[in-house]
Specification:
By secondary structure, the protein is of the alpha+beta class. 34% of the residues lie in helices and 34% in strands. The longest helix has 17 residues.
Length: 91
């Protein structure tokens, strides 16, 4: 999904991921736990859009599992489920 973002939005998300990676552990407003070992990077994109990158920590490394543009207040179950499925595949 990150490849579908335009250059400006990819730069924003990349900087946010870098900030989380090199400042770990870090909390709100940039990063939030979703429970069960799943975390989200919270990015504010251009044109008022919001992106989330779901990740886990595996063997001391940040593993990006899923990215999407957030369109509702609540995290859609399908996005969480996909990230959890991918997380189980690497464990």
């Amino acid at each position: 999904m990150l490849k579908a973002f335009d250059d400006a939005d990819r730069k924003i998300v990349g900087e946010d991921i870098k900030d989380v990676e090199f400042s770990w552990p870090i909390g709100m407003p940039l990063c939030r736990s979703l429970g069960r070992g799943l975390w989200e990077v919270r990015s504010e994109l251009t044109r008022g859009r919001i992106a989330r990158v779901l990740f886990c920590i595996h063997e001391g490394r940040m593993v990006l599992l899923h990215a999407f543009i957030k369109k509702t207040r609540k995290l859609p179950d399908a996005n969480r489920d996909l990230a959890l499925k991918r997380m189980k595949e690497i464990a």
